[in-house]
Design brief:
Layout (H helix, E strand, L loop, with lengths): L26 E11 L5 E3 L4 E6 L4 E6 L5 E8 L4 E6 L6 E6 L7 E5 L9 H7 L7 E2 H5 L3 H51 L3 H21 L6 H24 L4 H31 L6 H28 L5 H14 L3 H17 L3 H14 L4 H13 L6 H14 L7 H15 L17
Parallel strand pairs: 1-8
Antiparallel strand pairs: 1-2, 1-5, 3-4, 3-6, 6-7, 7-9
């Protein structure tokens, strides 16, 4: 028996308008304690000790003092930075530690020895800390030989030159990424407007411009924390261009043009899924922020990336690779878990079920539609989807249920519903080929009357 949905239409994808918010740098707390060894050998807290922190992967410095308990803290330093910390206090020898990362769970606990109370300059601190994180004292630095001092000065000059070069590279990458994000978003939104005006050729060009801009930003620094947002929006641009290409291909006047058009659309759907998947993976690898504002930003970036991945899989699975249906289910489930809006969550559940049906995963689709019908038994589209999923399974034992759900759709859907005539055609086919007609009962479809 021929088991066709009798539906040969593509659902137009709705472009998600992602917030144009550049992912801000993550910060982390740096903290520690200061104690000094007294004449009796006991350690006591030092109040008012000077704590100087110098960032060594770029030019930046931070300063604070210990409190009466000897504790000190910087509420938020850039997480990705590398720092040299030097601590000094009256009557003590200074201590320096290099190669430090801002980590709240790794405090820097300094125990100072009695000394002159010298406070190291930035150059002296960097020189003292050149032993890759080893703690040293100011006394040791001041007692170096002339040759050692000359070498230390040369090392400092070289390190400063390296820092300058690194800073220049970072600043350039930040500018390229920021400019690319802004220009890409402008092109993406313009493409959306062109699509709304049915100027699809113009929209495809604008989406291409957006994709090129995002790629430029990604190339500037593939590991930059803001790259995930570029990839999220790149996925949206690829997805929308793919829909336009697909729609143009299915109405192409000749087979060669149609085939070529479908292949370019599939390439966009594939690239959209890859970009969104990469965005989600990058966000999941980021260390959770402790600052409330940073936590909110991370949650926002993750939400959009999960949404983009689900939307990309909605097109990729039925149009390119039905074998990835389970991955698509996982993507939708993860997005729905992060979606606070009940209406959007409900739509996503319906989209997932329809995606499985379009991909030929009839049994999986039926399970998802059953969940929706259980919650909303009068929903016409849910009844239609469940009826078609049961019908397309090829299991004749499910044809009666399929007819019941399809008839319920016909009874409840408005006459203007675009699939109403298709459902009637399927019902007629069931009757003619299988002698199956909808049950005339008040019992819910799929339920048997008690004997």
């Amino acid at each position: 028996m021929r088991r066709s949905y009798l539906l040969n239409l593509i659902t137009l994808a709705v472009l998600l308008l992602f917030s144009a918010v550049t992912a801000s740098a993550q910060t982390e707390q740096m903290r520690g304690t200061v104690k000094m060894v007294g004449a009796n050998g006991q350690q006591t807290p030092v109040a008012g000790a000077t704590v100087d922190v110098y960032r060594t992967d770029m030019k930046a410095d931070y300063h604070t003092k210990s409190d009466k308990k000897g504790d000190w803290v910087f509420a938020g330093l850039p997480f990705v930075g590398t720092y040299t910390v030097t601590i000094s206090a009256p009557g003590a020898s200074p201590m320096t530690k290099a190669g430090v990362k801002a980590r709240a769970n790794t405090p820097i606990d300094a125990v100072l020895a009695p000394g002159s109370g010298k406070k190291l300059t930035e150059a002296e601190a960097l020189a003292a800390g050149k032993g890759e994180g080893a703690a040293t004292s100011g006394a040791a630095t001041s007692s170096e030989s002339a040759g050692d001092k000359t070498k230390a000065a040369e090392d400092i000059a070289k390190k400063n030159a390296d820092i300058t070069a690194t800073n220049s590279k970072i600043e350039n990458a930040n500018k390229v990424i920021g400019d690319s994000f802004k220009a890409g978003n402008a092109a993406l939104l313009a493409g959306n407007e062109a699509d709304r005006a049915n100027k699809h050729d113009e929209a495809m060009k604008l989406y291409g411009d957006a994709i090129q801009q995002y790629d430029t930003g990604v190339a500037a620094d593939p590991e930059h924390p803001g790259i995930a947002s570029l990839l999220t929006n790149k996925s949206a641009a690829l997805r929308s261009r793919g829909v336009d290409r697909y729609n143009a291909a299915i109405v192409a006047p000749d087979g060669t043009t149609k085939t070529a058009g479908l292949e370019t659309a599939k390439a966009d759907f594939t690239a959209a899924a890859e970009a969104a998947n990469r965005a989600v993976e990058m966000i999941k690898k980021q260390t959770p922020a402790t600052d409330p504002a940073e936590q909110k930003q991370q949650a926002t970036n993750k939400y959009f990336a999960l949404n983009a991945r689900a939307e990309a899989m909605r097109l990729f699975v039925p149009k390119v690779d039905p074998g990835k249906a389970d991955e698509a289910i996982s993507a939708y489930q993860e997005y729905m878990a992060a979606e606070p809006d009940a209406a959007k969550k409900s739509k996503a559940q319906m989209d997932m079920a329809q995606m499985l049906l379009d991909a030929g995963a009839a049994d999986k689709a039926a399970l998802e539609f059953q969940k929706i019908v259980a919650e909303k038994p009068e929903d016409p589209d849910a009844n239609l989807g469940l009826g078609l999923a049961l019908f397309s399974s090829g299991d004749k034992g499910k044809y009666q249920e399929a007819a019941n759900y399809l008839q319920k759709f016909v009874n409840t859907a408005p006459d203007t519903h675009k699939f109403k005539n298709d459902a009637k055609a399927v019902l007629q086919e069931l009757k003619n080929a299988e002698n199956v007609t909808p049950e005339k009962t008040t019992t819910k479809p799929g339920q048997r009357k008690r004997p």
